[in-house]
Amino acid sequence: MSRPVSYNLIKKPLEADISMAPMPSGHQGEGFFATSLNSVIGLARKNSIWPLPFATSCCGIEFMATMGSHYDLARFGSERVGFSPRQCDLLMVMGTIAKKMGPVVKQVYLQMAEPRWVIAVGACASSGGIFDTYSVLQGIDQVVPVDVYVPGCPPRPEAIIDGVLRIQDLVGKESLRRRNSETYKALLESYGIQ
Ligand code: SF4
């Protein structure tokens, strides 16, 4: 007896659902491919970013949608969201940060190992947003260095994904020497970080 409903009649090859990371620039020939260490490490890092969501209010809800199946941050290798700073390399601050939370954001940043990156998601994290008051930090870049700002109140999940893509660009192109450079040390020193 045949089944009343047929499904999966047209099977797609598995490769059709998989997008491969593009190769870094280099030299290719019969049986070899040569590129720079910077490019290889950048490629690995940018496609395996582990975010730490520091969500304090409404923007955090947009991040939850970003992690859900519809927007699916896992497509960019960032599905491993962690709440232990020592295992994460991307601090995503989402929401209003009161001044008394500032030292907590900084503490979390300090507990992350280098190399680490920071996204300020939404108007509140970027600039205090509509809360121009005595109690709200007017942007997290007053306590930690920020790499990418995502505008919006709240930013849609597409905007958050765009912020992650901008971080991927930075991570992929970052020189391995940057974290030891005088410029970077001076940046950290300006935040009182040794
Ligand atoms: S930017 Fe807007 S949506 Fe995001 S935390 Fe602030 S008030 Fe809420």
Characterize the structure shown.
The chain has 194 residues and is of the alpha/beta class. It has a domain at 51-166: Rossmann fold (3-Layer(aba) Sandwich). 32% of the residues lie in helices and 12% in strands. The protein is built from six helices and six strands; from the N terminus they run E-E-H-E-H-E-H-E-H-E-H-H. The strands form two sheets. The chain has a four-stranded parallel beta sheet, sandwiched between helices. A two-stranded antiparallel ribbon has the order 1-2. The longest helix has 17 residues, at 157-173. The chain is flat. The model has no long low-confidence stretch (mean pLDDT 91). Bound molecules: iron/sulfur cluster (SF4). Iron/sulfur cluster (SF4) binds at residues 57-59, 95-96, 122-124, 129, 153-154.
